[in-house]
Amino acid sequence: MSIKKIGVVGAGTMGHGIAEVSALANYNVSVVDISWDFLNRAKERIMESLNKFYEKGQIKEKPEDIMKRIEFSTSYDVMRDADFVIEAVPEIIELKRKVFETLDSITPSHTFLASNTSSIPISTIAEVTKRKEKIIGMHFFNPPPIMKLVEIVPSKYTSDETIEVTIDLAKKMNKIPVKLKVEVPGFVSNRIFLRLMQEACREVEDGEATIEEVDSAARNGLKLPMGIFELSDYVGIDVAVDLWNVIVSSGTAQDVKCEMYKRKFEAKELGVKTGKGFYNYPAPGKYRKVELQVTSKVDPARLISLAVNEGAWLIQNGIVNAKDIDTVMIYGFNFPKGLMEIADELGIRNIYNHLVDIYSKGYVAYRPNSLIEELINTSKGFYM
Ligand code: 3HC
C-alpha cells in the first residue's frame, strides 16, 4: 500500500514536529486542530525549525517549498483522502477515543490510524473503531525533527500489514523503528523514563542529594544530554505526571512515593512550556540549557539502578531484548550508549547492591528482578 497523504491530528509540541518530519520526507500533510491559534503557532514552530536546518545546510529544499506540502485546518474534512493518520492530541483517553471514532467515520476504509500516545494502551483506542486491525501506536520523541527513534506498538488486534506499513513509513521518515513484541503500558521508553524520574525524586526527597546534584551526575557522570529533572521540564511535568499515573495505575509497575512532581503539577509549574518547573527558563516555551556544577556526590550506578531493574523486567517478560532497550535509549533520549550497556560497564553487582539497599529502606519497587540475580550468580552481564 503506497502512502501519499499523511494526516496529523493535534498541532502541539509533538503534532507540529510529526507534520514537519512527514513533509521533510516528501509527503503531503494535513494538520487538524481545534483552533487557529494552535495552528498558527504550529506553522511558526515548523518554519523556525526548517529555517535552522536550512541555514546549517542540513536540508537543500527551501523551507517555504516544504511548507507548501502542509495544509492546516480546523475541520476533519481534510482527512477524507489521507492514507495514514497520526493522532497527537493530549493524553486524555476519552479525547483520544473521540478522535479515533471521528477518524474512523471520515477516512477511507484503507486508511491506517496511528496514535502517538506515550502510554495509553493501543487496544483501548482501537476498540472504538470498526478497523481495529489498522490501528497502531507510533510513538515519536521530543523534539521529533531531531530524535531518531519511533516506537512501534501493535495492539492485540493490529494486523501484520499495518505493522509493515508503519515500520516502512518510519524508515521513509528517516527514523529508527523499534517494535514491541507485546503491548505494555508506557512502552519501553516511558517505563525506563519513569524509573529514572522515580529514583531521581527519591534521592532528593530522602535527602541524599539536591536536584542539581542528581542532574549533574546524569549529565557529567553518565554523559546524558540532559539531567533527569531537566528532561522532565523539557517533556512537560504534566506529561511526566500523566505517564507516571498511567503506568502505575495499570498495575504493571510498583509506585515510588514522590511529592515533588505532584506539587509542581498542582502549582502549574510545568517546565519549559510555562517557563518554570524544577528550573527557570528565559520565557514560556523557550528552553535554555541548565547550568550545573560539574562534580556531584551522586553515584551514577544508583541513579540508573531502578531503570536497569525495569530493563530486566522488560527482557524477562519477552517485550524486547537488551539491544532494543539500548536502541530506544540511544535514539529516543540521545544517550551516548545504551542503558544496559552502561549497566554492564558499571557492574551488575554494583547495580544490584544499590537495589538491595534501597529495597531494604522499604521501597518495594526496588526488589531486584530475578534476571539480575541470575546474572550475578553466573557472573554475567546483559551482553557479557
Ligand atoms: N528543530 C531543528 N533544530 C533543533 C530543534 C528543532 N526542533 N531543537 C533543537 N535543535 C537544534 C538546535 O538548533 C541546535 O543546533 P546547533 O547545535 O547547530 O546549534 C541543536 O539542535 C542542539 O540544541 P540546543 O543547543 O538548543 O541544546 P542541546 O545541545 O541541549 O540539544 C536536545 C537539545 C537535542 C533536545 C538535547 O538536549 C537532547 O537530546 N535532549 C534529550 C531529549 C530527549 O530525551 N527527548 C525524549 C524525551 S521523552 C519523549 O519525548 C517521550 C514522550 O512520550 C514523553
Task: Give a short summary of the structure.
The protein is an alpha/beta fold and 384 residues long. The protein has 16 helices and eight strands. The protein has an eight-stranded mixed beta sheet, sandwiched between helices.
What would your notes on this structure say?
The structure is a single chain. The protein has 384 residues and is of the alpha/beta class. The protein folds into two domains: 5-179, Rossmann fold, CATH 3.40.50; 189-377, N-(1-d-carboxylethyl)-l-norvaline Dehydrogenase, domain 2, CATH 1.10.1040.50. Helix content is 48%, strand content 10%. It is built from 16 helices and eight strands. It has an eight-stranded mixed β-sheet, sandwiched between helices. Helix 7 (189-205) runs antiparallel to helix 12. The longest helix has 20 residues, at 36-55. It starts with a strand and ends in a 7-residue tail after the last helix. The mean pLDDT is 96.
Count of helix runs = 16
Strand content: 5-15%
Mean pLDDT, to the nearest integer, reads: 96
Low-confidence stretches: none
- Note the overall shape: globular
SSE string, helix = H, strand = E? EHEHHEEHEHEEHEHHHHHHHHHH
Q: Tell me about the biggest sheet?
A: 8 strands, mixed
CATH architecture of the largest domain: Orthogonal Bundle
Topology, number of strands: 8
Into how many domains do the coordinates divide? Answer: 2
Q: Name the bound molecules.
A: 3-hydroxybutanoyl-coenzyme A
| Rg, alpha carbons | 21 Å
Q: Regarding CATH, which class of the largest domain?
A: Mainly Alpha
CATH topology category name of the largest domain = N-(1-d-carboxylethyl)-l-norvaline Dehydrogenase, domain 2
Q: Quote the distance from N terminus to C terminus.
A: 42 Å
Strand ordering within the main sheet: 3-2-1-4-5-6-7-8
Helix content: 40-55%
- The secondary-structure class comes to alpha/beta
Domain 3-hydroxyacyl-CoA dehydrogenase NAD binding: 5-181
Enzyme class: isomerase
Domain 3-hydroxyacyl-CoA dehydrogenase C-terminal: 186-281, 302-378
InterPro entries: 3-OHacyl-CoA_DH_NAD-bd, 3HC_DH_C, 6-PGluconate_DH-like_C_sf, 6PGD_dom2, NAD(P)-bd_dom_sf
